[in-house]
From TrEMBL:
<protein>
    <submittedName>
        <fullName>ABC transporter substrate-binding protein</fullName>
    </submittedName>
</protein>
<feature type="domain" description="Solute-binding protein family 3/N-terminal">
    <location>
        <begin position="58"/>
        <end position="292"/>
    </location>
</feature>
<feature type="signal peptide">
    <location>
        <begin position="1"/>
        <end position="22"/>
    </location>
</feature>
<comment type="similarity">
    <text>Belongs to the bacterial solute-binding protein 3 family.</text>
</comment>
<dbReference type="Pfam" id="PF00497">
    <property type="entry name" value="SBP_bac_3"/>
</dbReference>
<keyword id="KW-0732">Signal</keyword>
<dbReference type="InterPro" id="IPR001638">
    <property type="entry name" value="Solute-binding_3/MltF_N"/>
</dbReference>
């Protein structure tokens, strides 16, 4: 039987000194300086006539913060300014649309209702396009999605690449994510074959995840590969043992997420494609060590997990 374990962190937030540390090749201090792009007339023209933004003239975007950690979201040295790759992408979208940007750091559980209710104009939260999500949201892609299994450097585990490899293991995963869906699908397949059940471990933040892995309370973490790679380079305490496409068994993409049918997705896609064309997009990915997941063009509602 599958069971879950909730592990709480020693502290609710990472300390400022820990939060601003950078993996090799990532200059957190330099990355506090925003990357901007120019307004794109074609993108602006695609904003539906009379569209009501949460705040007039402003794009209000839900983003992650310390729960995801760098490169996705963290505080700058002033301990209040949100920086990270997701906020950088949000700025490019807003700039291209000729709008101001308002970032709202929120929990993973909050963004779906926040977008559908109109609390946020968009969510940029490392959200993978899935078949189920496309029934409620529109998507404009901005990055490929790959997931990585990471273990303690001294772990005896050498490979996790398919369903049998997770049998009986305690694996840290975020609830309600596509990586959880992959693990549960694999576990169902294993149990049908009589293999030991997976033991999902749900944690509250990056500090709790680190504690669980290093103390042996969990065997591995499974989540966005760029995040795992960043932490591995930063600390040297974890290592990669397997990569899985985010849309397993198919490829998948990360996307700006918008309310279904409100018409804004066309403008957002055009803004992203403008940033891709002028190089500001790749500048953002490069400075957060995410360029391995770059795309050549944004797509609207492409095939995703479950299609």
């Amino acid at each position: 039987m599958i069971y879950s374990r909730k592990i709480t962190a020693v502290a609710a937030l990472l300390s400022l000194s820990a939060a601003v540390q950078a993996a090799p090749g990532v200059d957190i201090v330099a990355n506090e300086t925003p990357v901007h792009t120019v307004p794109n007339p074609q993108a602006i023209a695609k904003i539906p006539a009379g569209f009501k933004f949460v705040e007039p003239g402003t794009l209000t975007v839900a983003v992650s913060l310390l729960g995801s950690g760098p490169p996705f979201g963290l505080y700058a040295r002033d301990n209040k300014t949100v920086i990270g790759s997701e906020s950088d992408i949000a700025r490019l979208v807003a700039d291209g649309l000729g709008l101001k940007l308002k970032l709202v750091a929120t929990s993973w559980e909050d963004w779906p209702l926040g977008v559908t209710s109109g609390k946020y104009d968009a969510a940029i939260y490392n959200i993978t396009v899935t078949n189920e999500r496309k029934t409620k949201f529109d998507f404009a892609t901005y990055r490929q999605d790959t997931l990585g299994f990471y273990v303690k450097t001294t772990s005896k585990i050498t490979e996790i690449k398919s369903a049998p490899d997770i049998a009986g293991k305690k694996i840290i995963v975020d609830s309600g994510t596509n990586q959880e869906a992959v693990l549960l699908a694999w576990d169902k397949e294993n149990q049908a074959k009589g293999l030991p059940a997976l033991q999902p471990v749900y944690v509250t933040d990056k500090a709790a995840s680190t504690l669980a892995i290093q103390s042996g309370r969990a065997d591995a973490t499974f989540g966005p590969n760029v995040s795992g790679a960043y932490q591995a380079k930063l600390t040297g305490k974890t290592r990669l043992v397997g990569i899985v496409p985010g849309g397993w068994p198919k490829t998948a993409n990360i996307a700006v997420t918008l309310k279904k049918g409100n018409g804004l997705v066309d403008a957002v896609q055009a803004s992203l494609n403008s940033a891709i064309a002028n190089g500001s997009y790749l500048k953002v990915l490069d400075r957060w060590a995410e360029s391995d997941e770059k795309i050549d063009r944004s797509e609207i509602n492409p095939p995703g997990l479950g299609d």
